[in-house]
Amino acid sequence: MRTPIAIIGAGPAGLLLGQLLHTAGIDNVVIERQTAEHVRSRIRAGVLEQTTLDLLDRAGVGRRAREEGLPPDGIELLFEGRRHRIDLHRLSGGKRVMVYGQTEVTHDLMEARAAAGLTSVYGAQDVQLHDIDGPHPSVSFFQNGQRTTLQCDFIAGCDGYHGASRRAVPAAALRTYEKVYPFGWLGVLADVPPVSDELIYAHTPRGFALCSMRSATRSRYYLQVPAEQKVQDWTEAAFWDELRLRLDPEARERLVSGPALEMSIAPLRSFVAEPMRFGRLFLAGDAAHIVPPTGAKGLNLAASDVGFLFDALTDHYREHSTAGIDHYSQRCLQRVWRAERFSWWFTSLMHHFPETGAFGQKLQEAELGYLVGSEAAAAALAENYVGLPLA
Ligand code: RFL
Ligand code: PHB
Prior knowledge:
The chain is α/β, with parallel strands linked by helices. 39% of the residues lie in helices and 28% in strands. It is built from 13 helices and 18 strands. The chain has helices spanning 12-23, 36-41, 50-58, 63-68, 88-91, 102-116, 165-168, 236-245, 249-254, 298-319, 323-350, 357-373, 375-386, and strands spanning 2-8, 28-31, 47-48, 75-79, 82-86, 98-99, 119-121, 125-130, 138-143, 146-157, 175-190, 199-202, 209-215, 218-226, 260-274, 277-278, 281-283, 289-290. The strands form 3 sheets. Strands 1, 2, 7, 8, 9, 10, 16 and 17 form an 8-stranded mixed β-sheet that branches. A hairpin with a 2-residue loop joins strand 4 and strand 5. Bound molecules: 8-demethyl-8-dimethylamino-flavin-adenine-dinucleotide and P-hydroxybenzoic acid (PHB). The site of P-hydroxybenzoic acid has 10 residues, from strand 13.
């Protein structure tokens, strides 16, 4: 088996890269560990930046996101029992984000991939990368009782934080940076109308809460919970009771609860691996970096990596230039670290950190007050939230 580009992982990064390459006439094969049904049913991100929508358009899959996505003009910050609106649209000079679930993005990309007749291998076990620093790399995997080898020009490692790609890079060639937070997010998806048209980020002494949505009839809510808690420690009734306690009186009154379609806990972590290219292997998305979800940046960073990788590969095949390949890692990492900084800052501001005590709580309240009272501070939040320009 041979292909120009072997893509490991059928998450948004891998599938988007596959479609962009297809539009440029570059064939590719996606190798995914899970079944297609498993990939399709994962509930994750919800907020797309303009640059991500533009890339979906370039890949020919942006139509449904633009037609069915919800474009809130702002977000609300709730603290000391009151909500304060940040007008993202006005403060960012006319930019917007789109609320459109990652599940739907994945669905649109999978449909387009099937329609294009591109090869995808689902359920591939023991995926291994070979000769990544030589001129003839390959990927092998186990499926239906036999090992298959895929020869290629380049490998795109889009297999997430737990994937095989980053681990194939010799430890001495990789530097990693990590921060693990002492809490996670307990998330519930439910077919109930959202409590508000705009996302509510709540800072309370009981912990952080987030009210998000997927449509006019489907809501996504999160609660900060201690890192050691398991989803089995919670009942749905306890979730709704706790969420109410973290909202202001009006939102508490409006909140509609209902059976959970999904309930899970995600740990919070900041992580970066440098560099993002080793020989003929490129890391993209969660394989190279993780942000805590507070800034809604994970999927968007995965998309911008893929945009840069697409530019690098088209430069190589069309212009016979290695400039894009040589600069790929540096180009991505500049944007990655800015998003890491924003996600860490917003996480630190909004969550409850018992170890910082009353002093820490007072500092957070002072900063939140400054944020909603100063145009300059609010504009900095808006600029980062809607997404910094691509460098
Ligand atoms: P993914 O989505 O993890 O996909 C990786 C794929 O690789 C497969 N895989 C393997 N395949 C072959 N061989 C192996 N050895 C493999 N190991 C793994 C996996 O099965 C999977 O299919 O990574 P990708 O494509 O880089 O995409 C990243 C995003 O999924 C992630 O950053 C976001 O979901 C993060 N995120 C958010 N991002 C946003 O931009 N906006 C948000 O609002 C947002 N909210 C969130 C989030 C993540 C969350 N969780 C669950 C951590 C909210 C939450 C709760
Ligand atoms: C979501 O809708 O899942 C979501 C929205 C905003 C975030 C994180 C997650 O910051």
